[in-house]
Amino acid sequence: MLDPFPPSPAWLRDAVEPWALHYNVPALTEHAHEVIIAFVGYLAIHFVLSPLLSPILFPRHYPQLNPRTKLNWDVHVVSLVQSTFINALALWVMFVDDERNSMTAGERVYGYTGGCGLVSAFAAGYFVYDLIVSTVYIKLFGVGMLFHALSALWVFSFGFRPFVNYYSPVFILYELSSPFLNIHWFLDKVNMTGSKFQWYNGMLLLSSFFCCRLLWGTYQSLAVYQDMWYALKQTWDASVFQIRDGSLCVNEACARAGIQVSKYAPHTAAGVPTWLVLTYVISNLVLNFLNYFWFSKMVETVLKRFRTPPAAADKTAEAKSAATEEKINHLREDIAQKVVLEAAAKLEQEEGGPFLDDLTDEKVASAVDSRLTEELRRRKATVASS
């Protein structure tokens, strides 16, 4: 698949190419303008669009926020836009990029397509923005967020080598849970904590996190490890790439896209350096460990709720009247809703740790609304006395 984005202007290519070749990321020459556009776009959303539109769309909430929470709001707006856009782009590339879908194990390590390069470029643009914001506001966000931005930018720059360019859209799909995480945060700030909408969003957040980061992420990690192991064992030669002479193509674009897979073969002719594989594997393992750690914290939150059932639950067998049974059912529904909200809040606390507000109680359970808690207590007491 050719890059569907307009090509980089000649003056930018000439300026970037010497640096790209020096740092062994030659494909960056073709995508530098996309990195810059993404970076400038996210800066504009943060410093112009969000401060301009948020008071109009949320006049009763945004103007009342303190400066630190406004900064968090603007960062979350960027994160919401970026995660939604990059996921849609990655899924589109995975479905329409025929050259990517026909790659062999060797091509998945050494090969290149313009579509995968486009995903890497827009992801890199966001991580450059993330790095700048983390550096400027390091006292607010801490060193952890800075290192996260550095490591993410470092790993996605491998796609311009190109190294496992095939997997750029694969691992960006870790972000499928991020839109729901951001929405959860926004609902807290617009006084919709404990609402049905937040509950439904919380269920989508937890299920998408489990499916995308644990199931999909683990499976694809094993796949990339297998491909890299194959690449390390093989002696690099031209047979790494399939013969793509365009004989089966019906137009010039198809033929050009096929040839493009091996476009950077001269730069990868030395094979895969062991340090590069180790760096990639270690980064991937750390990220997977964090995903399992965050999910375990969420499960722990849920289990705590079921280990300490309300007193009314013990009286279920004794409740005989239809009215009491109905009250108990309502109570169970509210407890189930609260469990989802607490689990989503715990996930927000763990994964979204850098984006914290001034109030420390939000670090514990931002989704547990005092009104909901008081209502649960009242219902417990009513049912227990029945």
From TrEMBL:
<feature type="transmembrane region" description="Helical">
    <location>
        <begin position="136"/>
        <end position="160"/>
    </location>
</feature>
<feature type="transmembrane region" description="Helical">
    <location>
        <begin position="35"/>
        <end position="59"/>
    </location>
</feature>
<dbReference type="GO" id="GO:0005783">
    <property type="term" value="C:endoplasmic reticulum"/>
</dbReference>
<dbReference type="GO" id="GO:0055088">
    <property type="term" value="P:lipid homeostasis"/>
</dbReference>
<dbReference type="GO" id="GO:0016020">
    <property type="term" value="C:membrane"/>
</dbReference>
<feature type="transmembrane region" description="Helical">
    <location>
        <begin position="109"/>
        <end position="129"/>
    </location>
</feature>
<feature type="transmembrane region" description="Helical">
    <location>
        <begin position="71"/>
        <end position="94"/>
    </location>
</feature>
<feature type="transmembrane region" description="Helical">
    <location>
        <begin position="166"/>
        <end position="187"/>
    </location>
</feature>
<dbReference type="InterPro" id="IPR006634">
    <property type="entry name" value="TLC-dom"/>
</dbReference>
<feature type="transmembrane region" description="Helical">
    <location>
        <begin position="275"/>
        <end position="295"/>
    </location>
</feature>
<keyword id="KW-0812">Transmembrane</keyword>
<feature type="domain" description="TLC">
    <location>
        <begin position="68"/>
        <end position="307"/>
    </location>
</feature>
<dbReference type="InterPro" id="IPR050846">
    <property type="entry name" value="TLCD"/>
</dbReference>
<keyword id="KW-1133">Transmembrane helix</keyword>
<feature type="transmembrane region" description="Helical">
    <location>
        <begin position="199"/>
        <end position="219"/>
    </location>
</feature>
<protein>
    <submittedName>
        <fullName>DUF887-domain-containing protein</fullName>
    </submittedName>
</protein>
<keyword id="KW-0472">Membrane</keyword>
<dbReference type="Pfam" id="PF03798">
    <property type="entry name" value="TRAM_LAG1_CLN8"/>
</dbReference>
